[in-house]
Amino acid sequence: MTKHTILVPRSRDLKRTLKWVDELYRSPESDHYTFDFGQMNWIEPFPLLFLSANIRRFRRSKQEARFTATNYQTNSYAAHMGFFEAFDLHVGNKPGEAQGSDAYLPIMSKSIEDMNKEAGRRNLHVGDVLEGDTAKLAQLLSQEKKSHLVETLAYTLREIMRNAVEHSESAEFEYCGQYWPTQNKVEVAILDCGIGVHKSLSANPNLRITSEDHGLRLALLPGISGKTSGRKIQEYDHWANGREN
Fold it and tell me: 209 and 172 share a domain?
């Protein structure tokens, strides 16, 4: 039996985290992979989601291999937030199990299929189904319960989540957040493992996309979408953003 140990990086080093994920998928074929979390210290929302999602994808791509973990016992914060359970290492809370507070939201995993079914069952647009999730994130970001700022942030976050539901072709999306009052700092992260902006927009034959960067810039423009509906948008249609005239 061949064994391979994978050292998980320090989460505060963003460049190292991104590089590590690339290296993860280049790991040699093995019968037994061990993830060593000894270097991983405090973990913030983006690496929390990014690392857990990619470890989960890696595990799923190696169905025949055995997986173990070591040196994870001191990461109590990650365990509380649902980090380890997100990739089936049965340590700490499951995603969504912790209640959260005004200072943090744990990892929440949302099934896109379930959200679409709920929207159909309640005869709602999926954007309306997302309102509870976006309100929590907006309140965490603003540290306010109700204000124009909360409404603006909730609208923006809802558009991000809608893209995951309507265009990503991912099975789920996840989010979490953390507020540090002593640092006057807040961070939220929303992640899906879908096809990406470039591929999504490329489905629209009316668009010529020359690069990943070009695709991202186009995606920020009103009315740009990977889908063409041919339907005239009415002024009262508050879910029309991102659709084609």
Answer: no
Per-residue tokens: 226: 């990977």
pLDDT tens across 98-143, in order? 999 999 999 999 999 999 999 999 999 998 999 999 999 999 999 9
Tokens of 223: 């009315």
Residues 85 and 125 in one domain: no
CA 199 centroid distance within chain = 18
Clarify whether residues 83 and 117 are in a common domain: no
* Domain C-terminal end among 156, 171, 194: 194
Give the Cα separation of 154 and 137 in Å (integer).
7
Residue that the structure tokens 């080093």 belong to: 13
Where b means 16+ CB within 10 Å and e means fewer, 135-165 reads: bbbbbbbbeeeeeeebeebbeebbebbbbbb
Half-sphere CA count of 67, side-chain side, radius 13 A:
17
Tell me, yes or no, whether 112 and 189 share the same domain.
yes
Place of tokens 């096809």: 195
Q: State the DSSP code for 94.
A: P
Whole domain around residue 18: which residue ranges?
1-95
What confidence tier does 226 reach under pLDDT thresholds 50, 70, 90? low
The sheet that has 172-180: what strands, in order across it? 104-111, 172-180, 185-192
Helix, strand, coil in percent for the chain, rounding step 5: 40, 15, 45
Q: How many domains does the chain have?
A: 3
Is 0.70 topped by the overall pTM?
yes
Q: Do residues 36 and 118 share a domain?
A: no
Kindly state whether residues 236 and 212 are assigned to the same domain.
yes
The HSE-up count of residue 66 (CA atoms within 13 Å, CB side) is 7
